[in-house]
Amino acid sequence: MLKIISEIGWNHMGNMELAKKMIVESKNSGADFAKFQTWKVKNLKKGPWDKDGRLEIYKKAELSENQHYELKDFCEQKNIKFLTSVFNEEDIDFLSKLKLEYIKIPSHEIYNKDLIKKSIDTFPKVLLSTGASLWSEILELIEKFGTKNIIYMHCTSAYPCKPENINFPRFLELKKKVETIGYSGHLSGVDDAKIAFALGAKYVEKHFTIDTNLPGRDNKFAILPADLKNLNNFRNNYIKMFEDKGLDFQKSEKDIFENYRGRWNKHGKI
After folding, report:
1. What pTM value is reported for the model?
2. Vertex 120, ends 116 and 126: CA angle to 5°?
3. Which of 82, 69, 65 lies closest to 22 in space, CA to CA?
4. Cα dihedral sign for 8, 13, 17, 18?
5. Contact 126/95 with Cβ under 8 angstroms?
6. Rounded distance, CA 262 to CA 257, Å?
7. What does each C-alpha distance from 48 to 37, 52, 255 come to in angstroms?
8. Given CA atoms 104, 108, 111, 115 in this order, what sign does their dihedral have?
9. Residue 268, pLDDT above cutoff 80
10. Is the pLDDT of residue 159 over 70?
11. Across the strands, what pairs with 38?
């Protein structure tokens, strides 16, 4: 079970047709989940986003309740799982009506134990990103909530993230502590995602777009369909390479075993 999450997030900028195109491209490129973000601008605190243009983006990209249903239904039609990030407890009350199997909690809410607790109580599986957090905070969450229903996602909350900041040693330490580990990556391209799978991640999340020239920061470093297909091919080959074929030679080697061994040893014995 190795799963790929296509993080569409708010790259659609409130355009439902664009959001649906991204879902289709996510599915066609091999993703298992199409992920969005759930918030209400009315719940946003005052901050630098009020003056730097982000507030207008948040307003445009806010999904209504009807749009959530529309996107979830569309995902079901396309045979890809709908997933979304939740930022406060109030939105869980609505999202519970969607009967989701998974919910995502972003890194900057890792401190919010009430949100995590309500998510665990509401959804069968919780994906929890661990970026921009203290190691002691992660250990406290593991102690408090366990690891059975939470997939801890190693993450570095830098957008985009440089290779030297990925910090896979922390991933390996986290892997020792949890039942299931995942990875949420912000590196341009898919090298980080491939390494995460190779190191044992069961879920890998990458920001996704169909056009890096679309508005917004996330579209700029998000991967394109060709990148996602590349990652999917790697994932599929990785799974195949670890199929147990036993300790003796395989059927695919039978001709070599029976006809090639000793063929240059005319005068000797096999």
Report:
1. 0.95
2. 80
3. 82
4. negative
5. no
6. 10
7. 20, 6, 69
8. negative
9. no
10. yes
11. 86
- Residue 78, SS3 per DSSP: coil
Pairwise CA distance, residues 150 & 234, whole Å: 25
Helix (H) or strand (E) holding 206: strand 203-207
Residue pair 70/42 in contact (Cβ under 8 Å)? The answer is no
Is the separation of the CB atoms in 237 and 37 below 8 Å? Answer: no
Cα–Cα distances in Å, from 176 out to 14, 63, 170, 185?
A: 40, 37, 10, 20
**Type of residue at 104:** K
Residues near 236 by Cβ (< 8 Å), separated by ≥ 6?
A: 30
Phi, psi of 239 (to 5 degrees): -60, -45
Q: Is the pLDDT of residue 270 over 80?
A: no
Q: What are phi and psi of 269, to 5 degrees?
A: -115, 150
Give, for 39, the enclosing helix (H) or strand (E). none
91/122 Cα distance (integer angstroms)? 12
> What is the spatial distance between Cα 90 and Cα 107, in angstroms, rounded to a whole number?
18
pLDDT at 39 over 90: yes
Closest C-alpha to 100, from 127, 87, 82, 73? 82
